Amino acid sequence: MNMHVKALKEIMAFQKSTQLLIPFALFARLVKEVTHDTLVMEGFRWQWAAVECLQEALEGFLVDVFDSMNLLAIHACCVMVMQKDMQLLFRLMWKFAPVGSFWAVNSLYQIPIMF
User: Fold this and answer.
1) CA nearest neighbour of 110 among 99, 98, 97
2) Under DSSP, is residue 109 helix (H, G, I), strand (E, B) or coil?
3) Residue 77 in 3-state DSSP?
């Protein structure tokens, strides 16, 4: 089977499914680790529904980011998404974020764009 045909079939299968792509146990472990490293409160616990909600929001955000990066790559007449597309996307998000949005509120915590 051609590599491109296989990739397109996988994409179509993922688009039809409603399941989350990141395994729940791994994501929950990551959330707990980040919480433990950043919060000074001892004994902080996450409810299962809160972690699941956070995971759904994150995966939706990542889908939007990759969709926008794909549009930037197409605009640049490229077939592949490259690092410079992600850098440009994050710059545009921070520059043109509406007031009160996540990007406007958290612009002080700018993630390093150099990968």
Assistant:
1) 97
2) helix
3) coil
Alpha-carbon torsion angle 94, 98, 99, 104, nearest 10: -20
Q: What angle do CA 105, 111, 113 make, to 5 degrees?
A: 130
Q: Give the global pTM.
A: 0.68
Among residues 72, 105, 104, which one has the least CA distance to residue 88? 72
More confidently predicted of 107 and 71: 71
User: Do 86 and 69 meet the contact criterion of CB atoms below 8 Å apart?
Assistant: yes
Under 8 Å between Cβ of 54 and 31 = yes
Give the pLDDT score at 29. 93
Reported as type and span, the H/E element at residue 106 is none
Q: What domains appear along the chain, each with residue ranges and CATH number? A: 22-109 (1.10.20.10)
Question: Helices marked H in the chain — which ranges?
Answer: 3-16, 24-38, 48-75, 83-95, 102-105
Residue type, 107: S
